[in-house]
Amino acid sequence: MFATRQISSIAKRAFSTSASSNAAKVAVLGAAGGIGQPLSLLLKQSSLISHLSLYDIVNTPGVAADLSHINTDSKVTGHTPDNNGLKEALTGCEVVVIPAGVPRKPGMTRDDLFNTNASIVRDLAQACAEHCPKAHVLVIANPVNSTVPIVAEVFKKAGVFDPKRIFGVTTLDVVRASRFVAEVKKVPTDQAKITVIGGHSGVTIVPLLSQSGHSFTEEEVKALTHRIQFGGDEVVKAKNGAGSATLSMAFAGARFTNSLLEATVAGKKGIVEPTFVKSDVFAKEGVEYFATNVELGPNGVEKIHPVGNVNEYEKGLISAAIPELKGNIAKGQSFINKA
Ligand SMILES: NC(=O)c1ccc[n+]([C@@H]2O[C@H](COP(=O)([O-])OP(=O)(O)OC[C@H]3O[C@@H](n4cnc5c(N)ncnc54)[C@H](O)[C@@H]3O)[C@@H](O)[C@H]2O)c1
Ligand SMILES: O=C(O)C[C@H](O)C(=O)O
């Protein structure tokens, strides 16, 4: 009995050693915030992370000390702007997740966050371009439709742009869509896999319910589409001035980060997630970035899936999304390229 227990504990240690040699340094920028803390907690559970590096302008030493007592194998470090903290946090990173920035209050659109968040994301992207130019950068900070082009333009200016490594995290839209459809159709969520394309704000969020394998009445389609497009507003309203989605976003952000690590670090094939990336899908319409399902591989974006069959209602949703998306993207680009 004792011998068996001893052998199994040795085997467990051997496994964790080999697992950690195949693991990455991951930074969370904005790690002390409403999303940053639970996201970091979820990432602390990943055996594909060897070093979880937490950066924020405040409070990361405490968050890092707390998480570092969890008995998973990753090292946790906390950094603030003191003592070259951002450089320390980023050097050697393979993945950087950015939830740094202010959240909405009731009555605001995501675009209303642009004035504050654009410069936060720009400065963090500049640091990434300098200290970990090959890292995969996962942008959570809103407005995602503009902050992703901001990161891309900063990387272009620094001469280190790789479109396969910059991602807007739109996972929360499919997480919500799955939950909402499962409620309506009274099925388990694993039978409610919904493709959502476009961007991450209001009408730019385009659910393709016709591809779900479920049938819906016209009223259900309209109600579900509206709820998926404006799900973020439900949370903002319910939090009543105390911010926007944090816990569901941490869940969604961890899902995307883990999927990326499965593809990049563990070398798994066929990992598909929706994400807002540089894309040719609507290039003819002048849209440079677009969210679709994307197969992830060792170098990030492996294959951008086509939109597939859409019905007339969904064609209308896409037509409404395109001009808004183009405006959001151009706004981010010109923020960096203005004279
Ligand atoms: N992509 C999505 O689906 C999605 C979902 C929810 C929220 N968001 C966005 O995520 C962002 C963060 O939301 P939150 O609720 O965590 O906000 P929060 O205010 O709770 O946390 C933000 C954190 O960012 C930090 N921060 C500010 N400036 C920084 C800088 N220069 N460097 C490093 N850290 C900095 C703050 O100190 C704070 O700890 C918001 O912009 C929100 O709109 C996106
Ligand atoms: O709604 C917000 O402002 C936060 C986030 O983009 C969301 O979709 O919950």
Structure description:
Residues 170-335 form the Lactate/malate dehydrogenase C-terminal domain. Belongs to the LDH/MDH superfamily. MDH type 1 family. It catalyses: (S)-malate + NAD(+) = oxaloacetate + NADH + H(+). Helix 2 (36-43) runs parallel beside helix 10, helix 6 (144-157) crosses helix 11 (312-337) and helix 7 (171-185) runs antiparallel to helix 8. Helices cover 45% and strands 17% of the residues. The protein folds into two domains: 4-168, Rossmann fold; 171-337, L-2-Hydroxyisocaproate Dehydrogenase, Chain A, domain 2. The strands form three sheets. The chain has a six-stranded parallel sheet, sandwiched between helices. Strand 1 (24-29), helix 2 (36-43) and strand 2 form a beta-alpha-beta unit. The protein has helices spanning 2-21, 36-43, 60-67, 85-90, 114-131, 144-157, 171-185, 218-229, 231-239, 247-264, 312-337; strands at residues 24-29, 49-55, 75-79, 95-98, 136-139, 166-168, 195-198, 205-208, 271-278, 289-297, 300-304. Mean pLDDT is 94; it is low at 1-20. It is of the alpha/beta class. The N and C termini lie far apart (73 Å). It has eleven helices and eleven strands. The structure holds nicotinamide-adenine-dinucleotide and (2S)-2-hydroxybutanedioic acid (LMR). (2S)-2-hydroxybutanedioic acid binds at residues 103-104, 110, 142, 172, 200, 232, 235-236, 244-245.
